[in-house]
Design a protein that fits this description.
heterodimer, A: Elongation Factor Tu (Ef-tu), domain 3, Rossmann fold, 2 domains, 11 strands, B: alpha+beta, three-stranded antiparallel beta sheet, two-stranded antiparallel sheet, 4 helices
Chain lengths: 256, 117
């Protein structure tokens, strides 16, 4: 496969015993678009052990940020969870992915829907000035099982307003919606339920999602993606790609 | 699972898939590309990019024939990591049925597939 570069871990943040975020140095020659993923890993028994990771930092930042689960006995994440600043990681040199602004037709509101670590590409995208130039409103809806899994809640809830490039636009246009499905009483709705019931838009005071005007990016578990694609196709949304822009695009949340 | 290239690729060989594959798991025959099933990470990025709609997940019914072909040819053909120009008449072959029976060739592509001069 394409070449690998060594990068150095600069910081780690453990959200809980199942989720962590880490940052690495970034080779000055490494270019990517916000929303893309890249192969990442480390050498195990003399061979590179790599998995696909969405890049959670925007394309203009000096460092790379990644958001990972910790899978017990997971070949990569069981090792990766113990990394420390100064450790070396392998990063692929061919970022790719479908969660690109150019893959969507122009529109009114952009909905970024994620479950679990599928949130990562959207952390990058909401820090991209172009997102706010293309859309009136940018909605991040994050679905998790437990409250402690709502990583980046503070970031979307306010920290992003401090971003020098997009802070002001984020304050005006960025909306955040969190839903916890297994810990709240009554149980919070799944993303699919939020969408089919119209509650997502209602909660945020927005017009009903409409294939004429609204665009969506999805990233999360396969069940969510499958259900959501069925729902969106039935409502007249077309799937976008680099070959042809559409009403929605999706990416799997890659699991270690 | 893996993604597989079906006969819709034959004589089209558009290359869009090669440009987006994060692990460079495409292999080039003279008039077709295949995916190495052991190298594909199932990311699915290539599937919607193919102008000939030639790529499918192997979980789709009736893919076993193409999975076997992909696995066999990936061992014989040359790895391709960067897109090249598709054949000049690629569009003429898009959507034509029965291309495997009529036009498939196990000859490798790329430099190794060039006719000797």
């Amino acid at each position: 496969m394409a070449g690998l570069r060594e990068e150095t871990v600069t910081s780690i943040h453990h959200w809980n015993d199942r989720l962590f975020t880490f940052r690495t140095t970034r080779d000055s020659g490494f270019r990517f678009e916000s929303g893309q993923f890249v192969m990442l890993g480390l050498e195990v028994q003399g061979r590179p052990l790599l998995r696909a990771y969405s890049i959670a930092s925007p394309s203009y930042q000096d460092e790379l940020e990644f958001f990972s689960i910790k899978v017990e006995n997971g070949p990569l994440t069981s090792i990766l969870k113990d990394i420390a600043p100064g450790d070396r990681l392998l990063v692929g040199q061919k970022p790719t992915g479908t969660l690109l602004l150019d893959n969507l037709l122009p529109g009114r509101n952009l909905y970024l829907l994620a479950t679990g670590t599928g949130l990562a590409p959207f952390v990058a995208l909401v820090q991209e000035p172009e997102v706010y130039e293309r859309f009136d409103r940018v909605v991040v809806a994050h679905g998790c099982r437990f409250r402690s899994e709502l990583a980046y809640a503070e970031f979307f809830g306010g920290k992003v307003h401090g971003n020098e490039l997009v802070g002001e636009q984020a304050r005006d246009k960025l909306l955040y919606h969190a839903s916890v499905t297994r810990e709240s009483e009554p149980a919070g709705p799944r993303l699919t339920e939020l969408l089919t019931s119209g509650r997502l838009e209602a909660d945020l005071g927005l017009a009903t999602i409409d294939p004429e005007h609204d665009r969506l990016m999805l990233c999360g578990n396969m069940a969510m993606l499958d259900d959501m694609r069925t729902i969106l196709s039935a409502r007249g949304f077309s799937e976008g790609s680099q070959a042809e822009a559409g009403g929605f695009v999706y990416e799997k949340a890659f699991v270690g | 699972m893996t993604y597989v290239v079906t006969e819709a690729c034959i004589r089209c060989k558009y290359m869009d898939c090669v440009g987006v594959c994060p692990v460079d798991c495409f292999y080039e025959g003279e008039n077709m590309l295949v995916i190495h099933p052991d190298e594909c990470i199932d990311c699915g990025v290539c599937e919607p990019e193919c102008p000939a709609d030639a790529i499918r997940a192997d979980t789709v019914p009736e893919m076993s024939r193409w999975l076997t072909l992909n696995a066999d040819m990936a061992r014989l053909w040359t790895n391709i990591s960067q897109s090249k120009d598709p054949p000049p008449d690629a569009d003429d072959w898009k959507g034509i049925d029965g291309k495997y029976d009529n036009f498939f060739t196990p000859s490798p592509g790329g430099a190794a597939g060039m006719p000797e001069v």
